[in-house]
From TrEMBL:
Name of one Pfam family that matches: Peripla_BP_3
Name the UniProt record assigns to this protein: LacI family transcriptional regulator
Domain HTH lacI-type: 3-57
InterPro entries listed in its UniProt record: HTH_LacI, LacI/GalR-like_sensor, Lambda_DNA-bd_dom_sf, Peripla_BP_I
Gene3D superfamilies: 3.40.50.2300, lambda repressor-like DNA-binding domains
UniProt xrefs under PROSITE patterns: HTH_LACI_2
SUPFAM superfamilies, sorted: lambda repressor-like DNA-binding domains, Periplasmic binding protein-like I
The keyword Electron transport belongs to this UniProt entry's keyword annotation: no
UniProt keywords, alphabetically: DNA-binding, Transcription, Transcription regulation
GO molecular function: DNA-binding transcription factor activity; transcription cis-regulatory region binding
High-level lineage: Bacteria, Bacillati, Actinomycetota, Thermoleophilia, Solirubrobacterales
Keyword hit for Thylakoid: no
Biased composition annotated in UniProt, kind: Basic and acidic residues: 317-331
Length: 337
């Protein structure tokens, strides 16, 4: 027989009303009471009835997390933090892997989630037009959509692009290549903007023949780096749109017998865990992904259950931008000769 909230109430000596409030994360419940109820629920293996909860409260205590490609190691790092943070607040996580705008709209109309954290928004996927009309609170994390009125948590990608250039110029590089990301993403757009502005400020505009573009993938980095290294005058350094792209560039350099960093410097972006592995030791730009993910959860929960000084659901959208940092490892050095 399944455990109910009444069983938990008897276990902890509280009223069933208080236990029900605690189980749905009501901010009026004292923290110590909330902890007692959650501990008892875990001991008794309590499983909430999502359908009954929605009928009685209009809430599912479930948050959807939208990502583009869960096989890309960038996304599991963020999802892990989101899942842990939401779980601590009593929310389940539903992973929506690369849903089309129409599919996502149908999902939300069914009210299977209370809110969304969108990690992989693209500038042309139709989300901007659809999501506000669905009335589901959401937070944009990592990527921006200029025309949508929503809370967002980002890193300063323009500043990050400039940091890469400053580092390479200080090492003495002047012929710098770029393997850019998809043009329909704010991250790729802004990183390239920062790189171009920093180069132009030094009188070194990015040469058209030194630019390649593709997806945030190993294949894109490999193919782009092969093409750049086969130029009559190849670059001495390559800036990559992400760490995964940089891993592909490293493999391309190895395949062509180009020693990194003695003959070619390579820089990534994101500082995912793999970037620090000895096999890669990748110089990169660090986004504080864990901090950004935790903050996005907090902003969403303030919309879902406003209390005290939290903004009401209809308050103006908030924009929080985290600074990036250069992480120097072993894939960059002064150019040979």
């Amino acid at each position: 027989m399944s455990v109910t909230s009444r069983d938990i109430a008897r276990e902890v000596g509280l009223s069933q009303t208080t236990v029900s409030r605690a189980l749905r994360g009501d901010p009026r419940v004292a923290p110590d009471t909330l902890a007692r109820v959650r501990a008892a629920a875990e001991r008794l293996a309590y499983v909430p009835d999502a359908a009954a909860r929605w009928l009685t409260t209009g809430r599912t205590l479930t948050v959807g997390v939208v990502v583009a490609d869960i096989t890309n190691p960038f996304y599991p790092e963020i999802v892990e933090v989101l899942h842990a943070e939401l779980g601590r607040e009593g929310y389940a996580t539903v992973l929506l892997n690369d849903p089309r705008a129409d599919d996502l709209a149908r999902h939300l109309r069914g009210r299977s989630v209370d809110g969304l954290i969108v990690v992989s928004a693209t500038l042309d996927d139709g989300l901007a037009a659809r999501l506000p009309r669905l009335g589901v609170p959401l937070v944009l994390l990592n990527r921006d959509l200029d025309e949508i009125a929503a809370d967002r948590v980002l890193s300063d990608n323009v500043a990050g692009g400039a940091l890469v250039v400053d580092h390479l110029l200080e090492l003495g590089h002047r012929r710098i290549g770029l393997i850019a990301g998809p043009p329909n993403t704010s991250t790729a757009r802004d990183r390239e903007q920062g790189m171009r502005a920093a180069l132009a400020a030094r009188g070194l505009p990015l040469a058209p023949e030194l630019r390649r573009a593709g997806s945030f993938s190993h294949h894109s980095g490999y193919q782009g780096c092969v093409e750049l290294l086969r130029l009559p005058e190849p670059p001495t350094a390559v800036v990559c749109a992400s760490d995964v792209v940089a891993f592909g560039a490293l493999d391309a350099a190895k395949r062509l017998g180009v020693e990194v960093p003695r003959r070619l410097s390579i820089v990534g972006y994101d500082d995912i865990a793999m970037a620090g592995w000895e096999a890669f030791a990748l110089t990169t730009i660090r986004q504080p992904l864990a901090q950004m993910a935790k903050r996005s959860v907090r902003l969403l929960l303030e919309r879902l259950r406003p209390a005290g000084g939290s903004p009401p659901p209809a308050a103006p959208p908030r924009r929080e931008v985290f600074p990036p940092h250069l992480v120097k490892r072993e894939t960059t050095a002064a150019p040979a000769g």
